UniProtKB/TrEMBL annotation:
The keyword Magnesium does not apply. One of its GO terms (biological process) is regulation of DNA-templated transcription initiation. InterPro entries: LysR_HTH_N (IPR000847), LysR_subst-bd (IPR005119), WH-like_DNA-bd_sf (IPR036388), WH_DNA-bd_sf (IPR036390). Belongs to the LysR transcriptional regulatory family. Keywords: Activator, DNA-binding, Transcription, Transcription regulation. This is LysR family transcriptional activator of nhaA. Gene3D superfamilies: Periplasmic binding protein-like II, Winged helix-like DNA-binding domain superfamily/Winged helix DNA-binding domain. One of its GO terms (molecular function) is DNA binding. Residues 5-62 form the HTH lysR-type domain. It comes from Marinobacterium halophilum. It comes from the Bacteria.
Amino acid sequence: MLNRLNFRHLYHFWVVAREGTMARASQVLELAPQTLSSQVSALESEVGGLLFRREGRGLKLTDLGRTVQRHADAIFEAAEALQQVLQTPAEDRPLNLSVGISASIHKLIAWRLIEPALQLDRELNLSCETGRTPNLLNDLKRRDLDLILTDRPPALEPDSRLYLHDLGSSPMSLFAAPVLAEALREDFPHSLNGQPFLANAVDAPYVSQLMQWFDGAGVEVSIRAQVDDSALIKVFGHHGMGVFAAPGVIADEVCRQYQVEVIGQVESVRDQLYAITRGAHPQHAAVQAICQGRVDDSSKKADDKD
């Protein structure tokens, strides 16, 4: 049987079963849907029966397909564990770490989250990629990334083998250039009514919460600019273009680096952070260090990394 079973065909079937459609699996594997379909058909010939049946726009496993999937789960989970062991460098070699960072995360927060990996007693070759979480998830599935840092928990399928780690949260603070901040601190938050606001253009989860908080407080701000770079928002704020929001846990660093001041803190609006890994118990030492840290650990101090 092993002489007849093509493990590449089996792996491609396994990805299709996990993703639920040929289209999604093709995107993950970077193969044409027709190529992928023919490889699944070849596996069906090898095992002697249909593995899927069409249901709406998706695919549903047959009884034989579920049986093959269970064994494929064991095979490829063991292969991944072996791959992690084999890829772990010797103690005197650098450890490679590839991190995907959601574009909506503040760079100082990203630094705090990655910092535990940099404190390991081992040289680290770090690679960071910013982007939108759905795109980063595909890179994680392809093993181009070791983990993702995000502020929005995606809907993970139970059989996706991806795991969400809670890294803590921080209340949001509002900042402005010193002269403007001093004027707005009195009668906060009502003093914000009509003030120019610098918004995050990548639709960070805290933005909609903050807008609801403004509305509940009877405050109507004027959106002065929408910017998809958290560092650029702070630069605009430094030059007096308006009020901007950032996690309170990095308030000291924001004020020091951008010469702005805190207007006030909004306890009910929080920036929640997560790590996404392949499997609940990653073997990678640097990934473990990040997943065991928390952004709300006040003992962490960031340097000028933004």
